[in-house]
């Protein structure tokens, strides 16, 4: 440090000493000053003497005395000159009030040596060596200081400093004088310090007594705050105070007393930080708690920590430099809280202040304990008053909403929470669900309705604890989340941090619980939990009585509804009537737009809507019927849940679509049509899940949970009704099937009668020649197979007999062989004849009729003259043969058939295929096993056998015996070419038997037989049977009278026959009603 050159000059120092010893006037002055200093008792007197006497010895603008701390690390002003030139500097107050570290300034040198020395601020400034406090002094105009240590018992107790505005005012010549004066001033300073210490102790003792008296009268927080800001500020210096309290478990703390003079109040986070609980393990609170004495806290240092407490950072931003914290303990040394004294400057809390803070902490702890007690008494009185009031108030409330709202508002006058809920326990099932709630916070969450009213297991970590606890319990939502549970995740997501719960007991039985939901942790104190417990005793009775009353009313209402519904359902006879009754009755309970009743399939893998009542807008949608009544897989998020649930369920359509977008067109359709919510329940009849009821609403939250259980009772009755309807439909279907079987039996009976009348039997196949033996061999090969058979041969060769022989030898012989002559039916009627038709499918179809395919089911269908079938029908026939299913004309469903096909034709089908008159695919399908019958001209060896067979049959039929053929006649028969084959031979012999007068036919009149050059058409006309002629004749008459049978102009009158006889002939000849207007053209 730059000093005056005279400081190191021993010669000048010696000269100065000699001059002082040789100056009598100066000696007298110093003697007088010494004597006056000895009488000084106050700082002001000492300062006055120093300025008055020493200014005549050496110049100075002002002087000061500074004293170091006990460890000599800091110093502060002890005695100030009121005429100091530094007072005008803006940092003067900081300079004279703060503690400054002992560093590179004159204080350090004075403490180190105790000897006088001069310090040049000007030179130090030029070298940049001025400390912050020295810079303030230099900026005020001081150029040079004269300093000397004050010693007492060889220990530095202070530093005496003189200040000059001019450089060079001080030399070593005055050092002896300064040293001499400093020794006497040291004694005066010691005396003043001792006196001030005594006076300070007296003031502190008096203040402590006053404080003790004041504290003994403190009963509330504001009173304690007044004492801190008045009495304590007289004892030591601080800017503001903060008192915090500890939680019952000692792990958290919160503000207890907030000083309105706090500089932190302007911080934007002040209210949020001071209104919640903080952990005590923050590096400051726990340090204060661990110490036996007050702890000095460097705010800047603590705020710079990465994990600095929020309140410390806030204090630092508000200008707080340091704090002192001390624990407040009761008589049992239990920590009640701590008090923090905050200062805007450093060095405010010296040793004396720290001792005082420690001393007052005991009395502050007593005051805090007294306040706790008074607040407890007040809270208890207030609780009693509140409980008495609420007990009277809720005793008469029967409305749920009013009850829970009143309870919430009452409790919120004493407790800090957001939402309240009351749950009911189902102890046999081990579950609980919410029955009362007032949740203005959590009901803002989109999943509130879905989550809040579900049934949850009691062993969820919350209500099992509530149920088993003697009093109210406090639980953290974060800890509950660790146990798992969507309701805890929901609460956390909705902003709930803490839950206070208490069980509800009535008649010594636990029936439910009440939970209070708080958004902040540590919202409930121990006293709050005691209040909640006491309140639960009053609430339990009211809730239990309300539930009992509601249960009685609900049972009566449900009984009335179910009885009414039961009576209405009992009168219904169909699905439309059932859905109308359900809609009318259920709308008095539920708010819905549409209602449906549906069925599960037998395997429970799919479902379909059976009947629905929907709004006109949806019903008019072009795709409504196709979508609404289609069959869907059961795993759609609705019907699979209904199937596996024993209770009604609630579904939100938007949520379902978000989880499975694009997967379920039916659900997407109803959502697009405005449906938001569905309530449903399955239908169970005789322990079988048969279907479901669903109610659809265009609004969310349309269905109340408390009403949904009624849907279960409704479902029981509807299930019976649906089962009855299904049974009725089954009976109706069975009756239809029975009628179908009756129709089929009638058809079979008629057909069999016709077949019997045709007089064909298996024994009618006669042939001993090699040609027929080959036919018999092929017949034996194919009879027991299921293959399609194509019989080829000329007209009259016996194709139908071969077909019947194949049928009678097959496993289908006990079923019908149905014959269809494709050439005998008009093209417009062949399809109806083969496949049947529904009533009203075409003009004249006055009733339903089964076709030949159905009639021949499990039997054989003989398609005679297959080559005459129209091309357009050949396609349908091919499909029926290949797919084994048909569809009636005018029908909407297919019918499975099991029919063996035998076809016959006199045409060359290969030629027909080549010329485009017969489909090749049908030909290949029929030509599986072809049998070609030889013409009679190629098997003349069989003519005698055939003639004998026919003669015997016709003779017996004509009532004649022993009619024989002469050899001449037999030769005629053998010699004839027989273009009509066996049928021509049969007719010739029948005519001969009828015309002969004796017992021997001597000659066969073959002159009437057509020549070989006669057209085929004439041949066909000639070879027709009497039955064909009779059928054509009757058809002609029926066509002429337009189908009229009886009455004037009817067919019976024209034919001269009785009506019943004509009807019999019509049935026998196989004439169909569709043929009444048809006359076969020759």
Automatic annotation (TrEMBL):
**Keywords, sorted A to Z:** Activator, ATP-binding, DNA-binding, Nucleotide-binding, Transcription, Transcription regulation
The record's GO molecular-function terms, alphabetically, read: ATP binding; DNA binding
Domain of life per record: Bacteria
Q: Which InterPro entries does the record match to this protein?
A: AAA+_ATPase, AAA_lid_NorR, GAF, GAF-like_dom_sf, Homeodomain-like_sf, P-loop_NTPase, Sigma_54_int, Sigma_54_int_dom_ATP-bd_1
Query: Which GO biological-process labels does this protein carry?
Result: regulation of DNA-templated transcription
Q: Which PROSITE patterns match?
A: SIGMA54_INTERACT_1, SIGMA54_INTERACT_3, SIGMA54_INTERACT_4
- Domain Sigma-54 factor interaction per the UniProt entry, residue ranges: 765-994
Which PANTHER family does the record match to this protein? PTS-DEPENDENT DIHYDROXYACETONE KINASE OPERON REGULATORY PROTEIN-RELATED, TRANSCRIPTIONAL REGULATORY PROTEIN
This chain belongs to which protein, by name?
GAF domain-containing protein
């Amino acid at each position: 440090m730059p000093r005056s050159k005279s400081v190191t000059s021993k010669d000048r120092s010696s000269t100065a000493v000699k001059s002082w010893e040789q100056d009598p006037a100066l000696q007298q002055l110093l003697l007088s000053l010494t004597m006056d200093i000895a009488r000084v008792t106050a700082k002001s007197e000492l300062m006055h003497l120093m300025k008055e006497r020493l200014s005549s010895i050496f110049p100075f603008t002002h002087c000061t005395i500074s004293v170091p701390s006990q460890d000599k690390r800091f110093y502060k002003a002890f005695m100030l000159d009121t005429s100091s030139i530094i007072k005008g500097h803006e940092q003067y107050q900081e300079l004279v009030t703060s503690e400054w570290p002992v560093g590179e300034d004159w204080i350090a040198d004075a403490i180190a040596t105790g000897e006088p020395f001069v310090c040049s601020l000007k030179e130090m400034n030029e070298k940049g060596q001025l400390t912050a406090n020295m810079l303030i002094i230099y900026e005020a105009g001081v150029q040079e200081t004269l300093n000397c240590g004050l010693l007492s018992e060889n220990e530095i107790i202070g530093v005496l400093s003189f200040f000059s505005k001019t450089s060079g005012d001080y030399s070593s010549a005055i050092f002896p004088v300064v040293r001499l004066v400093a020794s006497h001033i040291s004694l005066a300073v010691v005396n003043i310090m001792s006196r001030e210490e005594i006076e300070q102790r007296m003031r502190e003792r008096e203040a402590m007594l006053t404080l003790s008296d004041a504290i003994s009268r403190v009963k509330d927080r504001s009173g304690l705050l007044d004492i801190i800001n008045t009495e304590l500020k007289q004892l030591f210096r601080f800017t503001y105070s903060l008192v915090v309290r500890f939680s019952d478990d000692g792990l958290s703390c919160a503000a207890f007393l907030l000083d309105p003079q706090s500089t932190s109040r302007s911080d934007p986070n002040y209210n949020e930080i001071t209104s919640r609980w903080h952990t005590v393990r923050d590096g400051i609170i726990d340090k204060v708690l661990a110490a036996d004495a007050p702890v000095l806290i460097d705010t800047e240092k603590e705020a710079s920590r990465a994990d600095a407490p929020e309140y410390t950072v806030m204090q630092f931003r508000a200008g707080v430099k340091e704090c002192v914290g001390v624990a407040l303990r009761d008589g049992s040394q239990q920590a009640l809280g701590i008090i923090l004294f905050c200062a805007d400057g450093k060095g405010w809390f010296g040793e004396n202040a720290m001792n005082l803070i420690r001393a007052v902490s005991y009395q502050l702890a007593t005051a805090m304990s007294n306040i706790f007690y008074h607040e407890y008494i007040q809270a208890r009185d207030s609780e009693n008053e509140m409980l008495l009031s609420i007990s009277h108030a809720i005793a008469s409330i029967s409305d749920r909403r009013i009850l829970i709202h009143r309870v919430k508002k009452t409790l919120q006058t004493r407790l800090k929470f957001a939402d309240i809920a009351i749950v009911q326990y189902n102890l046999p099932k081990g579950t609980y669900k919410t029955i009362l709630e007032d949740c203005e916070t959590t009901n803002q969450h989109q999943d509130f309705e879905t989550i809040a009213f579900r049934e949850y297991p009691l062993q969820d970590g919350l209500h099992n604890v509530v149920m088993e606890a003697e009093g109210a319990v406090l639980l953290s939502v974060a800890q509950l989340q660790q146990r798992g549970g969507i309701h805890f995740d929901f609460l956390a997501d909705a902003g709930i941090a803490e839950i206070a719960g208490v069980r509800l007991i009535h008649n010594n039985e636990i029936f439910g619980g009440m939970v209070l939901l708080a958004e902040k942790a540590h919202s409930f104190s121990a006293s709050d939990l005691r209040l909640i417990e006491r309140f639960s005793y009053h609430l339990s009775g009211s809730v239990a009585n309300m539930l009992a009353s509601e249960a009685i009313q609900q049972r009566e209402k449900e009984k009335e509804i179910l009885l009414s519904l039961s009576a209405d359902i009992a009168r219904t006879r169909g699905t439309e009537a059932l859905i109308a009754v359900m809609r009318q009755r259920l709308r008095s309970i539920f708010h819905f737009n549409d209602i449906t009743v549906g069925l599960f399939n037998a395997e429970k893998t799919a479902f379909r809507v059976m009947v629905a009542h929907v709004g006109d807008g949806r019903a008019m949608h072009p795709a409504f019927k196709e979508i609404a009544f289609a069959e869907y897989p059961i795993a759609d998020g609705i019907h699979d849940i209904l199937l596996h649930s024993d209770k009604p369920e609630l579904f939100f359509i938007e949520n379902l679509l978000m989880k499975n977008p694009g997967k379920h067109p039916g659900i997407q359709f109803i959502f697009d049509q405005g449906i938001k919510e569905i309530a449903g329940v399955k239908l169970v009849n005789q322990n079988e899940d048969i279907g479901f009821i669903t109610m659809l609403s265009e609004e969310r939250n349309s269905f109340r949970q408390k009403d949904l259980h009624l849907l279960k009772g409704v479902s029981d009755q509807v299930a019976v009704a649906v089962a009855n309807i299904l049974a009725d439909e089954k009976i109706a279907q069975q009756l239809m099937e029975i009628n179908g079987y009756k129709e089929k039996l009638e058809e079979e009976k008629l057909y069999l009668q016709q077949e019997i009348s045709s007089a064909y039997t298996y024994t009618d196949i006669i042939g001993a020649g090699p040609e027929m033996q080959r036919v018999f061999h092929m017949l034996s090969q194919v009879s027991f197979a299921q293959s399609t058979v194509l019989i080829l041969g000329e007209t009259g060769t016996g194709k139908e007999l071969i077909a019947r022989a194949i049928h009678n030898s097959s496993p289908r012989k006990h079923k019908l062989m149905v014959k269809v002559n494709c050439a005998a039916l008009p093209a417009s009627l062949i399809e109806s004849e083969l496949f049947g038709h529904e009533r009203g499918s075409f003009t004249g179809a006055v009733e339903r009729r089964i076709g030949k395919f159905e009639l021949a089911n499990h039997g054989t269908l003989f398609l005679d003259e297959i080559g005459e079938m129209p091309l357009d029908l050949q396609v349908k026939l091919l499909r029926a043969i290949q797919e084994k299913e048909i569809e009636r004309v005018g029908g909407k469903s297919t019918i499975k058939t099991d029919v063996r096909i035998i076809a016959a034709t006199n045409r060359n089908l290969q030629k027909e295929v080549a010329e485009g008159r017969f489909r090749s695919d049908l030909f290949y399908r029929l030509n599986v096993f072809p049998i070609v019958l030889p013409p009679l001209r190629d098997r003349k060896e069989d003519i005698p056998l055939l003639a004998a067979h026919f003669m015997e049959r016709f003779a017996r039929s004509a009532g004649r015996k022993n009619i024989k053929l002469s050899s001449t006649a037999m030769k005629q028969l053998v010699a004839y070419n027989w273009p009509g084959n066996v049928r021509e031979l049969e007719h010739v012999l029948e005519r001969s038997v009828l015309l002969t007068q004796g017992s021997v036919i001597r000659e066969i009149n073959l002159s009437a037989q057509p020549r070989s050059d006669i057209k085929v058409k004439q041949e066909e006309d000639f070879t027709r049977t009497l039955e064909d002629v009779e059928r054509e004749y009757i058809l002609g008459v029926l066509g002429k009278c337009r189908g009229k049978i009886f009455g004037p102009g009817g067919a019976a009158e024209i034919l001269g026959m009785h009506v019943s006889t004509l009807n019999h002939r019509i049935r026998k000849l196989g004439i169909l009603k569709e043929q009444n207007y048809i006359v076969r053209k020759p």
